[in-house]
Amino acid sequence: MTLTLLGLGPGEVDDLSRRAWRTLKQAKTVIVRTSQHNCVPCLPQSEDITYQYCDDLYEGIPAFADVYNAIVERVMTAARQGDVVYAVPGDPLVGESTVLKLLESAKAENIKVEIVSGISFVEPILAALGVDAMNGLQILDGIIVGMMHHPPINPDYPALLGQVYSREVAGNVKLTLMNQYPDEFEVALIHAAGTDNPVVEHLLLYEIDRSEHIKHMTSLYVPALGKMSSFEQFQEIIAHLRAPEGCPWDKEQTHLSLRRYLLEETHEVLEALDAEDEVELYKEMGDLLLQIVLHTQIAIDDGEFKMSEVISHINRKLIHRHPHVWGDVEAKNAGEVLANWDALKQKEHAEQGIERKSVLDGIPKGLPALMQALRYQEKAAKVHFDWESIEPVIAKVREEIDEVLSATDDEHRAEEIGDLLFVIANWARWLKVDPEIALRESNAKFYRRFRYIEENLEAQGKSPADSTLAEMDALWDKAKAEGL
Question: Stretch 144-158: mean pLDDT, rounded?
């Protein structure tokens, strides 16, 4: 039994190689992926050759992945019974997901495979566009990209997406690409490349599914976005900074020396979030990402780990911790999601031999104190160490205030203030308020109102230092009335 994977070329029968023609003439069973190909009417015919087409699968199965699986099953069923040729547009090993699946299946079942190459859809498209494939061109299956949520494309290099054979596929591809490219980014649809009448249609990305020319031989060319926009380019810059010819400061840094910058950049991201400043946010997130990539490059230089390990670990962790998305577990609300997350986390720790002596272990010691108090209380509440209602919490706040007032020395007073802050964090938890965020917002509010006081006093030729409390209180009330 031999499974022959044969390329029909991009469009015209003249593109068929002599070997492909001989193989088809000698075949008894030929399964063609689609009849929508210019050379199909001209394929060799005889009473001994039986042609089958897979168009019915495209028409009858709504999910593209299921279509591919059905094609593979049809071809494998025939291959188990004897020799079969599976013919595809272009070349079998360029943009043909079904071929890859067939290679895996045939290997598993010890079925011999022969490959008859053909001119792929790539060469005539390159000729129509006048571009060079060696310029980092990425070739992808448009159907698969359309099923994704984020494109698997390095935006610093061009990409060619085949099998954009319908407006529906084009619409799905468009939505995926818009997760990375601007809506008005100029792209090109190439129709009937390799035929006598190829059409290159330049459109904005958001327009591609409106094209009236889309047919079975349509592909999409996405130029490089440029602007140094890829993660790979970012890694190259950081690696260059750490290289022998790079920056003396960057070369001197270690994991420990960078600790303060990681913390500072995190707080600057929080400040941008508090200000709801989206422009400042993306800039500060870049600075924070710099710390992550720089730490990783230090690890690479020291032989500790690589970025691929960092990304692989978090990818596998996210998929494992979300069985309600990538598995068969049901989670009806966020509470059930968190419960599943904690259960999986505990199981992972047990499998890794990580011993938690306390349910509070795992909360970072370096967290801001108010945030740490909240996280401790959340952890304790999960094992039912908590009040049954909010009233005892409020009573505890009053009790701690009394204890502060009755403290007789500074050391005792400081201890009681700490207890008061801790129980206030607990009160905030009961009210579903994050005390850290609430305090940050109050701090920002205080800054705005005090700055208002300073500006108004300055307009009068005065400063807070030479003003009365009554004057400043009046301005404070005015700032409050103005909504600051």
Answer: 95
